[in-house]
Amino acid sequence: MPDTESGASYFGVQDPEHAVADLERFRDEGLDAVLHTFSERDQAFYRETMADIVAASHDHSLTVYVNPWAVGGVFGGEEFSRFVAHNPNSRQVLSTGERVPAACFNAPAFREFMHEWTRDAAGLGADVLFWDEPHWHNVHWYGDDHPRDVWCCRCTHCRDGYRERYDEPMPATETEAVSTFREESMLDFLDEMMALTREEGAENAVCLMPSQSADHGPRNWERLAENEHLDVLATDPYWDAFAEDADPEAYVSQFGTELVELADEHGLRSQLWIQGFGLKGESATDEVRTATRTALDLDADSIFMWGYDGCRTISEIACEEPMAVWEAYLDEVN
Ligand SMILES: [Zn+2]
């Protein structure tokens, strides 16, 4: 399927000379796009270096996506947030009143910080800014013993915003109005950042997690698809990471079908991500092949793997046989 874009995420290499060797390899392996992670650390210390790596990617005819890698603790990624450490008053607050280590989408200081990130990321020369897995903080991911129905965010900014919209105090339980407010807060945040991205000359992709919870933004994906600043609608149906005993074909198909249809209806490009981390056991390569073929059969415009070389270089999440996973993916997309 030559008109399907294929790519992979790339990270952890800050030396452009070393990165070039990988970019060359990706091109030789038939990929035509790459996603570069741009963390708070990169923004603070490696901005020009990252611009060199983006330029080298273009030299190799790769379309460049750039993502806010765990920036503010509210996007996906294996990184920490300095913003959260320095700005305790911009942190999300649980319904129990406890502050958590993630910035609030409604905190003015965080929005201001994200404006800078957006300008810097677009300024690297990125073709597309990839808003990856925006989410309200979920304490249950960190294995703690909070009650099941705890939620974020009930900080002063959120409570003020809620009162303004509904003319009543924000409840401590998650009512329908609270869920709607959480959704709308994230959509408003994304709209503001995506408008700026367009002004800065880049396109926008948003990757929604395969879930229908207000923890992850819009419960109804159409609400995002309608956004005038959006170019690419993406989801990452990681069958082994997000579901128990999920069949890769059924899982990718379940979320991929809806995504591709929505993207088509709204004149957007569709993008599906293939799990390339944390896979163990003999079935890993077959699962990757099945998932990739399913995405191709759905006619997605773009297919990416997270991440290059089966995440070989991130020991905590690497696949057991990372290169076998990577090669299975390359084999299917070529
Ligand atoms: Zn808040």
Describe the protein's architecture and organization.
- This protein has helices spanning 16-28, 40-45, 47-59, 82-86, 108-123, 156-166, 176-199, 222-225, 239-242, 248-265, 284-297, 322-333, and strands at residues 5-10, 33-37, 63-67, 91-93, 99-103, 128-132, 203-208, 232-235, 269-275, 302-306.
- It is α/β, with parallel strands linked by helices.
- It has a single domain (5-84, 113-134, 189-333), classed as TIM Barrel (Alpha-Beta Barrel).
- The strands form 2 sheets. It has an 8-stranded parallel β-barrel with strand order 1-2-3-6-7-8-9-10, surrounded by 6 helices. The protein has a two-stranded antiparallel sheet with strand order 4-5.
- Helix 8 links the parallel strand 7 and strand 8 (232-235).
- Bound molecules: zinc ion (ZN).
- The site of zinc ion (ZN) has 7 residues, from helix 6.
